[in-house]
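[job 0412] stage=fold_complex status=start
inputs:
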Amino acid sequence: MSERCRLSWWRGDGGEGARRNLGLIGVLVVLILIGIATRPDLYGDSGWVWNNILTILKLASVVGVVTVGMTFVIIGGGIDLSVGAIVALAGVWCTTLATQGYGAGGMIFTALVVGLCVGLVNGLLVSYGRLVPFIATLAMMVAARGLAAQISGKQTQVSDNAAINGIASTDLLGIPLLVYILATVVVAGWVLLNRTTFGRRTVAVGGNPEAARLAGIDVRRHTVLLYGLSGLCCGIAAVMLTAQATSAQAEMANLYELDAIAAAIIGGTLLSGGRGTIVGSLLGVVIFSTITNLFAINGLSTEAQNMVKGGIIVAAVLVQQFQFRSLAQFLSRNRLSTG
Amino acid sequence: MTEPADAATGPLAEAPADAADPAHTATGPLVEAPADAVPGEVVLRLTDVVKTFPGVRALDGVQLEVRAGEVHCLLGQNGAGKSTLIKVLAGVHRPDSGQVEWRGQPAEFANPQAAMRAGIATIYQELDLVEDLSVAENAFLGHEPRRAGFVRRGRMASRTREILGRLGHGEIPPGRMVRALPAAGKQIVSMARALSHEARLIIMDEPSAVLAHDEVGNLFRIIRELTAQGIAVIYISHRLEEIREIGDRVTVLKDGRTTAANLPARDTPTRDLVARMTGRTIEYVFPDRPADSGAGAELLRVDGLSRSGEFADVSLSVRAGEIVGIAGLVGSGRSELLETIYGARRAHAGTVRMAGRALRPGSVGAAVRAGMGMAPEERKSQALLLGEPIYRNVTLATFGRYARLGFTDAGRERAEADRIAGSLELRPRDVRRPVRTLSGGNQQKVVVGRWLLGDTRLLLLDEPTRGVDVGARAELYQVIRELAARGVGVLLVSSEVPEVLGLADRVLVLREGRMVREAPADELDENTVLDLVMAGSLMEGAAA
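[job 0412] stage=fold_complex status=done
writing structure:
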C-alpha cells in the first residue's frame, strides 16, 4: 500500500498520460540527437549546450503560458481561437501612453485584467449565449484584433518602462526570468488541474457535461471560468511578449492560437475534451521550439520548418488514434505467433 | 400459392398424407398457429438465434418466421430483446449462434448496407433522415441514380415521385426539404427509402409512436398497400389494438426467447398474449418489505407538475424510508417527470418541495443541496466519466466535501469510495480502475454509490436495472431496500412491471403523461398494471 502511494504522486492517477509523456520525451531525445548529428561542432561545447537549452526554453515561454490556459479550455470541452488576439489586445492596452503613466504595476495589472475580461466574455458567449466555442472565439479573435488596432492606431507602441522591458532581459541564477514565469504557470496549472476541485470539475465538464450537470456541478459557470483562465494566461503572455519586443502592436502574437492548440494536441489533450495533461502540453511546446531551434542552428528556412511542424501534428494525432495500448497488443500477438 | 406442394417446401413441413390442408404443414417447436391465414412463401426464418453482450444475454434462442405479404408483429416487454433482434436483422449486430435464413439461403449481414442490398429495410423509431436534404435525396441517399459520376437529379425526382405515388402520397414534392415535413411525412420518406432499395422486408420499430391518432390510419393503409405487393412487414408496437388491426401473426419475445410464434393476431385473447410476455422464466429475488413500511415523514411533495408535450398535472409524494415506483411505457413521460423533479428540466407549471421547502425550478444544484440524488436512465451518456477511475466517479457529486481550500484529498476520496465499493460488493473492488472496464451492473452500482456518500435523503432511480445481469439485479434491489430501511426515500421508474411491483411499497401508473392509478404494491398484480399501462391506447383507439 505504501509503495502504491509513493508511486501515485508521480503517476497521479493517469498512468496512461504518464506513458504518453514518456513518448514525447522520446521525441525530444530524437530531436536532440538529430541536432548532435548535424552540428557536432556546437554540441561539443558544453557552455553552448546549456545556453541553447535556455534559448529553447525562452522561445517556448510565451506560447507555453498561453498553452496552459488553452489546455484547460480544451480539457473542459471547448476551444479558444482568440488567444493570439487577446495577447495582442492586452499588450496594446498596457502600452498606451495613459497606462504607461501608472508604471510597471499598472501595466501588468491592465494586461491581466484585459485578458481575464475578454476571456470571461468568451465564456459567457459560450455557456449562456450557447454559441459554439469555435464560433464565439473566432468572432472574438477578429474583434479583439480590431480593437487592438483601434487603440494603437495601427502604430507600434514602444514600452519606455525599464522594469517591464527588464522582464525579458533579466537572469536569475543564470536562468532567464521568462523561464521562471513559464515554470510558475506550468506548476500552478498542474496543481490546479490535478489537485483542486477546479481541475476535477474541468475534467468532468469536458468528459461528460450531462453527467457533470446531473451530479450537481454548475457546468455553465465553470465554462465561464475556464475561458477566463485562458484569457488570464493570455494577459501574462502579453506582458512577457511586450517585454521581449519592448513594444506592442495589434499584429503581435500572430497565429499563437494554432501553436497553442497544436502543442496541446501533441501533448495528448483530447480535442473532444475530458482528457489531457499540463506536462504533455509543456512537452508539446518544447518540442516545437526545439524544432525551430534545430532549423536555426542549421541555418535552414522557416518554410521547411513549418512543413515539419505540420507533419508532426499529423503524426501525433495518428499515434493518439492508434493508441499505445493497441500497438502493444499488436506487438505481443505477433510475438506469440512467431514464437 | 395454396397448393400443397408449395406449402411442403418449408423445412418444418411434414407433408402428411392429407397435406391438401396447408394448416397441417406448419408445425414448429413452439406454440404455433395454423399458417393458412398467410398465403405467402417464407422469406425470413430465424432459428435459435443467440446474441450476448458483456453481462447480458440479449437474445437467448429466438425463432421467427416471416412470410411474404404478411404483417408480422413482434411483442414483448422492454428488455425482451426486440431492439437487439431488429439490429441483427438490419446488419448492425451479428448473432453469436443460430441460423438466419433469408429467401431460402443462409444469410449473414456484415453491415447495414449488406442488409439493405439484400432487401431488408429498417425504419427506426428515431428516423435516420438528413433533415437538410430534399425528400428525393433522402430516399436515394447512398445509391443515387447517376451517370458518369453525376447525379441524375431528374431521374431521381421522377422515381421518388413514382414511389411516393405507390405509397399513396404523390402530393409530397420530391424537392421539399425533409426538415419542413411533419413527423408523418418523414416516416413516409423513410418508407420511400426502403422501397427505393426494392426492399422485400420492411421492419418498423414502433412507427405509430411519432404519429397522431388520425395519422395511424393512413400508416395502416400504406402497410396494406405494401403487403398487397408481396412485401413482408415486421411490425413492432406496444399497442395491442394496433396489432389486432394491422397484424396477421404475432411472435412474442420474453427475456430474449421466443415464447410464442405465429399466433393469429386478431383472435388470440389479450390474456394469452400478456401471459406469454410476462410468465417469467427468471425469477427475480426481491428483498422482503419491512413489516412497518413507510411510517416516515413526508420528504418529497410534487404538486401539479407539468411540461407541455411530456406530462401534465402530476402530483405525488414520497415519505422517508418509502420506495415509490412509477410504471409506464417509453414515451409515457416517466423519465421526463423524474428529470423535472430533479431540476434537470424546467417545469412549465407546478411545484416540487423537499421537506416542505420549495425547490428552485430548473436547478440541479438546488435539488442536490436539498438532498436529492439521481441515477439517470442512460448510464453511460448521462452518469459516468467512462475513462476516469471508479473512485472519481463515485465522488463526482461529493469531491468538494473532501476538499480543503479547493484542494482535493484523493486519499480520502479513495478510502470513501472503497468503503462504498465494499458495501455494494463492487467487483472488481479496485477503485483506481477506469469505470469503462466494469460490467453494466457494476457501473450502475457506481452511479448509485455516488449518492450513498454525503447526505442524500431522496434517491431518484430511472431504470436502475437496464442492461444489468440477473445476479447484480438482486444485489441492487437489496441495496435499494437497505437504503430505504435507513430512512432514504426512493422514487423508482421502470418499464419492467415486475420490478416496480416487487420493489416498491407504493405504485403509480403513468400513461401518456398522466397519472392513472396510485395504489399500494400488494393491491396490484402484473396483469392489472400492464393493462393500465397499455390498454389506454386501446380505449382511445376505440373512441377514435
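[job 0412] summary: Chain A has 17 helices and four strands.
[job 0412] exit 0
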